[in-house]
Amino acid sequence: MDPKQAHGSRGASVAASGPGRRAAAAGDRGAVRAPRPNPGGKEMSGSLAGEGAASVEGGRGAMPAPMPSRVGTARHTTGQKRADEELRVANERLEEAQRVAHLGSWELDPHMDKITASAEFFRLFDAAPAEIARYAQFVERLHPDDRERVNRDVAAALEEDRPYDTEYRVKLRDGGWRDINARGHVVTDADGKPAWFVGTCLDITERKRAAEELRLSQAMYKTIVDNIPQKVFVKGPDLRWASVNGPLARDFGLRPEDVVGKTNRELFPQDLADKYSADDQRIVGTGATEEFDEEYLDKGERRFVHTIKTPVRDEAGTIQGVFGMFRDVTEEKRAEQRLRVANERLEEAQRVAHLGSWEWDPAGDQITGSAEFFRLFDAAPEEIVRYQQFVERLHPDDREHVDRDVAAALEGNRSYDTEYRVRLRDGGWRDINARGRLVTDPDGKPVRFVGTCLDITERKRAEGALRESERWYRTLAISLPHLVWTCRADGPCDYLSPRWVEYTGIPESEQLGYRWLEQLHPDDRDRVIAEWTEVAAHGESFDIEFRIRRADGVHRWFKTRAIPLRDNNGQLVKWFGSNTDIDDVKRASEVLAAVNAELEDRVKARTAALEAANRELEAFSYSVSHDLRAPLRSVDGFSKILLQDHGEQLDAEARRVLGVVIRNVQQMGRLIDDLLAFSRVSRKELERQPVDMGKLARAVAEVLRAAEPERAIEVDIGSLGGTLGDSGLLRQVWVNLLGNAFKFTRPADRPRIEIRCEQVDGECRYTVRDNGVGFDPAYADNLFKPFQRLHPTAEFEGTGIGLAIVARIVQRHGGRVSAEGRPGAGATFGFSLPTSKEDT
Amino acid sequence: MNTEPIEILLVEDNPDDVELTLRSLRTHNLANRVKVVGDGVEALDYLMPPEGAPPDGYPKLVLLDLKLPRIGGLEVLRRLKANDPTRIIPVVVLTSSREESDLVESYELGVNSYIVKPVDFEQFTKAVSEVGLYWLLLNKAPI
User: Fold this and answer.
1) Does A341 or A682 have the greater pLDDT score?
2) Coil, helix or strand for A548?
3) Counting one residue from A and one from B, how many pairs have CB atoms under 8 Å apart?
């Protein structure tokens, strides 16, 4: 059935019955509940209801009677029978149609308040016909929220002749609800009064649900489209803009509806618009989906977009426009750019730092690494893909511990931090410090093993050199007999050698800082602290002596020397010190000092004694000089007076005897004079001055030659040079030596005296050689002793003091004397004088 | 005793030396007016009496031994040379001492001659005579 046609015919009828409805509307609800009977109702509605009622009756057997009574009035002829039969078939078809269409039909008697309806109606109401016999029963089955509205609509239809078209929900037996669209109209009688109220009920539950779903779906679609970051648009067949989502409209600064109908040129600058239009036309032409990476300037800023355009087809597949979607990828582009720069920097940093990074997927056994990683391994990326390839490049000695470290890290026991050597192509090795950590998924399962490799070859080498150097110095510190230590630049001690520990018997740890001071002798401590504080402040070398307590409690003296060690900038970094045991030296020098002091005391005592002796000798000499000479003079004088005054009275023998007396007195006078001379030579203070020895010797030789002018003596004086000495005393030396030479050459036929000087070992050796009588070398030692003579006085005059005086003068000048000779073969007397040395 | 002033004052404690000296002087007739005193005290008593001038006048020459009892010769010399009237009297030290210190000190005190008495008598006589002759006859005294 076409609802429109039904509606139209009913509409005509309703219009005709308008005034009656309005009258009814003025009444109360009671008018509806008590509708007037309408015997002359529409044949269609009547037949429909009758057939329905019959059917229901047949099915359920409890149908009220009004409709069969009306149908029954027409059942009475053969022709009628055939017609009935046709009617029955038609009714069955109708019923089938109603069932399929979920469309029930009903009639309401406004007066009797009686409802008659088709089987489908009751099926829709999930009720037996008896349960909805009256209008009130019908209303009770509606959803409570719908009842009032339905009452209103029914009243409006009956009393105001309004078309009845409403929706309500019907309660089902299972507690559910069924949506119903009910339509109907009032059939009026000849007087224009309502006779029947007829209509249909259509099950619209499905439609309702579909409509709701559609509404939700559309709302969802709109929400999505308006909220995705992508800009979405549709252009119609004429390529004008047909729809845009919110974000795109906002970009245009327009409402979505204002964009509709616009062309590209109205929305974009010409060049862009033309480009877009060309794209659109191409897509419409080819029917292919295209993607574009496009850029444009937005307020001077370069923006990048990624666009997808695809043709829009109708159900027939005909292209009806273009669907487009694009998104701003400027930030992505920038992020990409930043990432690329960051990667480049990272790579550069790794290269500079010799730091490679790597990643290992333990499950897939796949290694990836940075460029620097492979450079460190001196390998191409494809050469190290699997773990085993990595291990094969390690030094054989390192493989085992690396395996162990990796395994431990994989088990999550500890972080991966290891060192190994990598074989290079040239056969060399590179030291690597590898660190890594295991990345796990939330369940703790290993996902990746990531880390770094650092080239530590240089560091290793430096460490090796440092270790070697340290080992060297430690060995030195241990092997030296000294106690070695180091202190920090600001003073506290940070190292004491095993020697120190061994000596003091106290562990190093208990002496560091300033606690080593406790081992110092209490008398030395304050002095050392003061000096050390002073020196540490100025960074100068430090030399000091103090006593350190040995393990057995004995304090021994040490000489300590500290040197400041400076770094390349001259900054003081450390003090290096050594203590040398000088206790034995110290004690020896103390003993020596004591001995020296004692010696000095003794020398002083001796000197005092000697001075006393000298004074006595002086007094003695004075006495000799004065007191011994006076009696001699008297003896001599009075002997001579005796000879002069009484010589004639004495006989020859008496005069001879007197002569002997006088001669001996005079000899004694000479002895005394010589003795005094010798004494003077010993006591006289030396007056040192430059002396020309040649000149002195020649002068003396002349005097002696003049004393004996009759003798032809050859005196040969060589170059004698000069010396430093007491000129008077040195003259006496020449007088005595040359005097002897003159004297003892008297018997010689051709007396010759040779004087020479020789420079030997820092001294001048003077010699006086003669060809005189010589002497017996057996007695040479006696020659230089006072009053020792090798020749009889009768043969050669003299007292024997001359050579003793020579020896004394030479000794006082710091020299030595010597004598060589043989009897009859001449003699050589020598003396030496130091050339440069001062003497006593 | 004549009233003529003495010419030589001999200060000598050894009588033997006095005799030998006088004999030497006598050889040259120089011993006529010689006064002999035996020690320093006597010498000073004579030359610097409390009353002012010596009763027999100042001698033309003093022969002075150094080793004297009581006051020594050097002290006598010092006092004579420190005293105005006696300062100009020639003093000859006639001594046995060959000590240089004696000699140096004597000259420092203003001695006019220093003679070491020889042991040999002839030489002694000669030395004494020469000194006497020089200072008494040849030397023109300021007085």
Assistant:
1) A341
2) strand
3) 63
